[in-house]
């Protein structure tokens, strides 16, 4: 075998043995493998992304409703919610779904769920309405409170970013099935400037406070703005080193990115440096967290100590 063929097959973690024990146990119930699961999910995300783009083309004409937390809702959010929840519920592993657009009745028993899908059918609805291209579709599989699998689809790039904790992460192009390219996070190398992610909507004071705590440890800190869960993909791609979040968001905004970044070799922790648990509390609002490309740096301590 040629060296490059050996390298390519080594990088294709998704065609190898699934070493995520939690996922293995769950898939055994549905007689599924990691490959059949991913192939099914990529087909679903192809369809969802195409529908998202159709709505995006006519975004100026969509009715926008303000929700309780004052975030917007469009017909696109609702259509994607129905498509994705319907498909996930019908899969052989038969798991419940917690979606940003679920009604209270659908998730009334959520605390008794050992495993579930947590999804945001359209993350970055404001970006969608304002046509910045930076909206995503987030799907995560949570087992015993931990995000084990995450997919962030970016319809405007025709890409699906996928991670399974313990196995790896990869980028799959739309319509190309399982022929993807593996990705790993990169270590921070001093004295390079540290790149910190934020959104242009986040309160300036909050962003400045985060930047100054990082400046004390790293010297030069650059800010990169991205909308929605694209920020997690930026951590994985090497475009940024760290994504600290103290502004409000919900568990469906975080879980897929959490699994993706950890699967790619990075870290995602709460302010105490602990792994994030999902669907465990009364509130579905996410706690402050930090996602980082280099897991050897204790960003939680640097950012949150003394706050
Ligand atoms: N006041 C608030 N409460 C809860 N979540 C909020 C919020 N303001 C913004 N968000 C969340 O932040 C997401 C956008 O993140 P960012 O500002 O980093 O791009 C929104 O995703 P949706 O568009 O899915 O609602 C929304 O869920
Ligand atoms: Mg969202």
TrEMBL record:
A Pfam family that the UniProt record links to this protein: Inositol_P
Where, by residue number, does substrate bind?
100, 122-125, 253
Q: InterPro entries, alphabetically?
A: CysQ, CysQ/Inositol_MonoPase, Inositol_monophosphatase-like, Inositol_monophosphatase_CS
Stored SUPFAM superfamilies: Carbohydrate phosphatase
| Annotated residues for binding of Mg(2+) 2 | 120, 123, 253
What membrane topology is annotated for this entry?
A: Peripheral membrane protein
Q: In which compartments does the protein localize?
A: Cell inner membrane
For activity, the cofactor(s) needed are:
Mg(2+)
CDD domains reported in the protein's UniProt record: CysQ
- Which of this chain's residues are annotated to bind Mg(2+) 1? 100, 120, 122
What reactions does this protein catalyze? adenosine 3',5'-bisphosphate + H2O = AMP + phosphate
**What keywords are assigned to this protein?**
Cell inner membrane, Cell membrane, Hydrolase, Magnesium, Membrane, Metal-binding
E.C. designation(s): 3.1.3.7
Report the family membership: Belongs to the inositol monophosphatase superfamily. CysQ family.
What does the UniProt function comment say about this protein? Converts adenosine-3',5'-bisphosphate (PAP) to AMP.
Q: What is this protein called?
A: 3'(2'),5'-bisphosphate nucleotidase CysQ
UniProt source species: Candidatus Paraluminiphilus aquimaris
Protein encoded by which gene:
cysQ
